TrEMBL record, chains A, B:
Protein name in UniProt: LuxR family two component transcriptional regulator
UniProt xrefs under InterPro entries: CheY-like_superfamily, NreC/VraR/RcsB-like_REC, Sig_transdc_resp-reg_C-effctor, Sig_transdc_resp-reg_receiver, Tscrpt_reg_LuxR_C, WalR-like
Modified residues (4-aspartylphosphate): 54
Gene Ontology BP, a term: regulation of DNA-templated transcription
Signal peptide span: none
Length: 205, 205
DNA sequence: CCCGGTGTCCACCGATCGGTGGACACCGGG
DNA sequence: CCCGGTGTCCACCGATCGGTGGACACCGGG
């Protein structure tokens, strides 16, 4: 019997998951929690075989909870089940050690199959998620912006001039200019507005 | 007996809703659809008392579907049940004629109570939604940007100079400057980057 | 008829930006 | 020890921006 913990802050979703899973002979829901912290605590006390984990939850989010569960050496496998499909979400969950990543538009069969696979030690991903990971590996990563560069850019986004940014950060205007020129190079733009919008598109801002 | 139609593209959510509602003696789920178009068609053929409508669905979204149902003169009442809580979502749904707006973190009791209220002809809103609407009414609306102003601003967001924008739109650079100055005034900024980020925050871009 | 909004355009000019071509110190990894 | 990345800074100068203070035509609502 595969024991499953449900971690989602929406009662409707937990209700739906319970209904789908308990229709199967070999699956049983052993608990429901509504935050990442509760999930970590539950796993520590009574490890299930699989945790169905949402990502966006109050307090400790699903990716952080996943990281903690994996880091604890627990035998519980985490399958992320979420609405979101952004690169950031997927990468954070995978980096955190999730054994699976499904979307909430999955059918009952897909869900059940994924849980069984995860319990066996397999890694299970929604097809669209596989595509994103592959695309990510193929695209050479741009050099990341440093913390200071992000800080400067954030202030550019608020409409401050280079001199104003310098005063705000207690650095010279020339230093601000240097940071911006490096940001332009890293983002492949030549204008501060495009730097800001590109950074927003890439999730940097 | 209150007859309820479920409109949500996530099987998990429909499963959960069905489970919650059918535990009540006076509620029955008469159908499940996964798109706005299907919801409109169902209501036209077999009007339920209440439609529980998600917003983000493939094809025709929930707000548009709500508008069509209301415009058709149907006696069905639409209660939006969604994860999202942005001003845009709420306003679109309310403007579309929704009789209610709940969030998916609502409890079973809140949900059931809302459906009963909607069936009686009441308008039911989540407390946080009420707060947003009140805040919206109090804040004097900024003058909207004209289509041309938005067009110019979108190009600014891509990093084009005023001259380049003029060439792109087949207008003079001076005209571009005039549009931008008016945009600055309407958005309360004095710099093109801030104009773009403010417009993005307000959902204009 | 009047008026506000919109889209179009102009000249002037101070302020700011961005590109070029430099520089130094520190730090961590190889 | 070497090197790349990072954070700091400079001067110069052409290009661009933004503010000011104008202008005209069209359109739709009151």
């Amino acid at each position: 019997m595969i024991r499953v913990l449900l971690a989602d802050d929406h009662p409707v979703v937990r209700q739906g998951l319970r209904g789908m899973l308990e229709a199967e002979d070999d699956l049983t829901v052993v608990g429901e929690v509504s935050s990442g912290a509760e999930a970590v605590e539950f796993v520590a006390n009574d490890p299930p075989d699989v945790v169905l984990m949402d990502l966006r939850m109050p307090g400790l989010d699903g990716a952080s909870a996943t990281a903690r569960i994996v880091a604890s050496g627990s035998r519980s496998r985490v399958v992320v089940l979420t609405t979101y499909e952004t690169d950031t979400d997927i990468l954070r969950a995978v980096e955190a050690g999730a054994a699976g990543y499904l979307l909430k538009d999955s059918t009952r069969d897909e869900l059940v199959t994924a849980i069984r696979g995860a319990a066996r030690g397999e890694t299970v991903l929604a097809p669209s998620v596989v595509g994103k990971l592959v695309g990510r590996v193929r695209t050479p990563a741009r050099p990341a912006l440093s913390a200071r560069e992000v800080e400067v850019l954030r202030l550019v986004g608020r409409g401050l001039s280079n001199a104003e940014i310098g005063r705000e950060l207690f650095i010279g205007e020339a230093t601000v200019k240097t940071h911006l020129l490096r940001v332009f190079g890293k983002l492949g733009v030549s204008d501060r507005t495009a730097a800001v919008t590109t950074a927003m598109e890439q999730g940097v801002l």
